[in-house]
Amino acid sequence: MVTLIDTRAPRDGAQRPRHPEKAHRPDKPMLPKPPWIRVRAPSSEGFLATRAIVRQNGLATVCEEAGCPNIGECWQKRHATMMIMGEICTRACAFCNVTTGRPLPLDAGEPQRVADAVAALGLEHVVITSVDRDDLEDGGAMHFGSVIGEVRRRAPETSIEVLIPDFLRKDGALARVVEARPDVLNHNLETVPGLYVRIRPGARYFHSLRLLQQAKEMDPSLFTKSGLMVGFGETRDEILQVMDDLRSADVDFLTIGQYLAPSAKHAEVKRYVPPEEFEDLRRVALAKGFLVVAASPMTRSSYHAGDDFRRLKAARAGGLAKA
Ligand code: SF4
């Protein structure tokens, strides 16, 4: 069987495979999706309006690049997650649908266009993420800072959440982002440490964990957030250990969602975790001390991020009031 994995052509019109490192791999078995995994066709007026604003501003979104199943629902509410620094990533994670390759130079006009789009979308809360830019000396940290600064200027009422790369071997990069004062700093661990070699080969579990801890040490007022996908073959005990690790790093907010394979060339879904197991994980995580936990089959790190930010603030304020 031939599997087409280039589901979305690059917007620059170049003819190249999205995942050259995966193209030669044998197809993996694809489990049939259970009824609780639902994907609605995106067609609402809100969806079209959001897409028009994204296109007019020449922006990329992780919603499209990652083939997110929630795009119909999120874009109907104008919640688009901006993906900065291009559409080409220097990493090749086994779960990810973003194109791997050599990125283009940074676009100095991008911070302004992101800010314009945030203002045009009228967002109360925006999530800004990026591809990995191992090719840049600072991993793109200054560019993140510029985007945060422009959004603050253009849309001062909008709260800003950044979902950052791990800045591996980029000394000083995290500090640059924290100094730009986002409201929420998210970095996803994605999976349990024992699966890093297979799922996140370019990353290091303890580096990612330490990044989250350092962010909170640099600015204790910052909300920190991380996310896991389940269904790769991890055990419950391994997930609970990651929760403990994240609490030790003083992370406030945890998201847990079902991994969905973008193609038969990506990591295989070993199991669809039923909704009641997500609810169990949510309860356990709250008991371990996270301020907010979102756990469901369709949870993604930016899913309902604005509502969750309000809950985060209320939960911290409630804790302080009790103290
Ligand atoms: S969950 Fe996040 S990535 Fe997916 S469509 Fe919604 S905002 Fe975009």
Summarize the structure.
The chain has 323 residues and is of the alpha/beta class. It has eleven helices and ten strands. Helix content is 36%, strand content 13%.
Explain this structure.
- 36% of the residues lie in helices and 13% in strands.
- The chain is α/β, with parallel strands linked by helices.
- Helix 9 links the parallel strand 8 and strand 9.
- Helix 4 packs parallel to helix 5 and helix 5 runs parallel beside helix 6.
- The longest helix is centred in the last third of the chain and has 18 residues.
- The structure holds iron/sulfur cluster (SF4).
- Iron/sulfur cluster binds next to helix 2 and helix 3.
- The site of iron/sulfur cluster has 11 residues, from helix 2 and helix 3.
Number-wise, the strands total 10
The largest sheet, given as strand count, sense and whether it forms a barrel, is: 8 strands, mixed
Mean pLDDT: 93
Tally of DSSP helical segments:
11
Give, in spatial order, the strands making up the sheet with the most strands.
1-2-5-6-7-8-9-10
Instruction: Tell me the series of helices and strands, N- to C-terminal.
Output: HEHHEEEHEHEHEHHEHEHEH
Strand content: 5-15%
Q: What separation lies between the terminal Cα atoms? A: 61 Å
Which stretches are low in confidence, meaning pLDDT under 50 for 5 or more residues running?
Answer: 1-7
Radius of gyration: 19 Å
Please tell me what the overall shape is. globular
Tell me which ligands are bound. iron/sulfur cluster
Percentage of helical residues? 25-40%
> Which structural class should the secondary elements be placed in?
alpha/beta
